[in-house]
Design a protein that fits this description.
Elements lengths: L12 E4 L7 E4 L9 E3 L2 E3 L1 E9 L7 H15 L3 E8 L6 E7 L2 E8 L4 E8 L9 H8 L3 E9 L4
Antiparallel strand pairs: 1-2, 3-4, 5-9, 5-10, 6-7, 7-8, 8-9
């Protein structure tokens, strides 16, 4: 079984070598509907940023969190489809997701630890790195840890 993600497909699949039990199935791609990105000779589904904010503020402020995530999505060039946030008690932590036409932004906060974990996954022409200055301004972290992954890489 292929462990990579596939581009959007039309009906049907095609086989690639080798045959038999080890055969892999690849989708037949309609290039008019292929939303994979090609950069520096590498084709992939999208860029996934894992962002940890340490020493951060406003992590229990629902309105600030919502506004920051929406502004970050807009700055990246993404299209917001839906926002759902949940405010926990007693610590005031917030978990939520912005569903985007180009993927998602999610957040989980631990105000008692001044820590937030965010995922920013985007495909197409969006730039997930443009979310970082907005997140820094809203949450004023003392430290930002960033990990970048290219999802669905085709080699």
């Amino acid at each position: 079984m292929n462990s990579g993600a596939f581009p959007r497909t039309t009906q049907g699949t095609r086989e690639t070598e080798p045959a038999g039990e080890e055969r892999k199935l690849w989708p037949v791609v309609d290039n008019g509907k292929d939303y994979f990105i090609e950069r520096d000779g590498v084709k992939f589904a999208g860029t996934h940023l894992l962002i940890d904010l340490w020493g951060a503020t406003n992590l229990d402020q629902l309105e600030i969190v919502e506004d920051a995530l929406k502004e970050a999505a807009e700055a990246s060039g993404a299209t917001l489809l839906h926002c759902h946030l949940h405010h926990f008690s007693p610590n005031g932590g917030i978990s939520g997701v912005l569903v985007l036409a180009e993927s998602h932004i999610s957040i989980h906060t631990w105000p008692e630890r001044s820590f937030a974990a965010l995922d920013v996954f985007m495909c197409g022409e969006c730039d997930p790195f443009k979310t970082i200055p907005i997140l820094k301004r809203a949450f004023k972290p003392q430290r930002v840890d960033l990990d970048e992954q290219k999802r669905g890489t085709i080699t």
